[in-house]
Design a protein that fits this description.
With 351 residues, the protein is mainly α. The chain has 15 helices and 6 strands.
Length: 351
């Protein structure tokens, strides 16, 4: 079970972005990358009274989102570099800096995973909904078979930032988790990363386009981007807060209420895998750091087309790990609020 203070704890564990007495917290904007004389310029925004700094947990997630956006920028910059200097077979100074940025993004994702998930889920056995059901099975049955008109006006808790029904947000988040199958995806990511590392060290292959196809074909389903967008459309923000809304605004029927419990109970299978996935994430970072060291110390050279593919691969890995982290936190929020709602309904129905 996730402790009731879990969301508070992870917020406190993330360093607070500060603009006082030192360096300003810089946030990469959505402006396109600009390349001039071989140099890459990325426009930044600095928090101010008109553009306040985000909360601590939001900052952690935004940092990773900015890294992923930066990877897109790196790819764009590298494409221009290939066009403008097609005869060059290895990196110049600026491209080496871009290369470092690609692998730093993996490090940021690792830190987010450790901060946002590991402490809360490493000993996970069952979620709050499963625990409540195990102790109140008969009461749950009675609530699920209550008359909708009896409860439609009862005010319940829901995660702050909810943009659709509670049922819709749960369905969208669980659909992404079930399609991702992060534990299996992580095994395949590690295998691919090891193959890339071996190819670089043996110089047996510096064309990684087939590995990009492998990601699209067998590691990360082409449906995942749309599924994650659907999740973000319903539950776009990471926050510990809750809002209170009538039952009828959250569930269109008692069947939806019961189906929500089933989904929140079934998704525990993915939450129990967090510790195993964390081991894979750490190994993945070590492999990518090794690749970076080999290239950055000029032990091996790698041409620009291969770097384009590496940037795509790093982005895909970072994106999936980050989104898995966000969805795990969203599931914890949904489960916690659902249990609060079960208690409210039990009292309202005098059970």
């Amino acid at each position: 079970m996730i402790d009731a203070k879990f969301l508070d704890d992870i917020i406190q564990s993330v360093p607070t972005p500060s603009t006082e007495g030192g360096e300003e917290t810089k946030v990469i904007s959505d402006e396109p990358v600009k390349v001039k004389d071989g140099h890459v310029d990325i426009v930044i925004d600095v928090p101010s009274s008109q553009n306040p700094a985000p909360t601590q947990l939001q900052y952690a997630h935004q940092l990773v989102a900015q890294d992923i956006q930066a990877l897109d920028n790196y790819v764009s910059a590298l494409r221009l570099s290939v066009v403008n200097a097609a005869g060059m077979e290895s990196f110049g100074h600026d491209l080496a800096n871009i290369f470092a940025g690609v692998f730093n993004s993996i490090g940021h994702v690792v830190n987010l995973f450790k901060t946002a998930l590991l402490r809360g889920f490493k000993d996970f056995k069952r979620g709050e909904v499963n625990e409540w059901y195990d102790s109140n099975r008969a009461t749950a049955f009675r609530i699920n078979h209550a008359n909708y008109d009896e409860v439609k006006d009862v005010v319940l808790d829901a995660p702050d930032g909810l943009k659709c029904t509670f049922y819709g947000a749960t369905k969208a988040t669980c659909a992404y988790m079930n399609k991702l199958q992060m534990r299996d995806a992580m095994k395949k990511m590690l295998d691919l990363a090891k193959r890339i590392s071996n190819d670089i060290n043996t110089s047996s292959n510096t064309n990684f386009s087939n590995y990009v196809f492998d990601i699209e074909r067998s590691i990360l389903s082409k449906d995942l981007p749309q599924l994650y967008k659907a999740k973000e459309k319903c539950l776009p923000e990471t926050s510990k807060r809750a809002v209170r809304l009538p039952f009828s605004k959250l569930f269109d029927s008692m069947k939806e209420f019961a189906d929500t419990a089933d989904m929140l109970r079934d998704v525990d299978v993915h939450l129990r895998e967090v510790a195993t996935i964390w081991e894979g994430v750490q190994t993945l970072q070590k492999i990518f750091n090794g690749i970076y060291d080999d290239v950055n110390t000029h032990r091996v050279d790698i041409h620009k087309d291969a770097m384009l593919d590496l940037a795509k691969i790093a982005k895909a890995f970072a994106e999936s790990i980050s989104q898995f982290s966000i969805c795990c936190n969203d599931i914890a929020r949904l489960q916690h609020n659902y249990v609060l709602d079960l208690d409210v309904l039990r009292k309202e129905l005098d059970m």
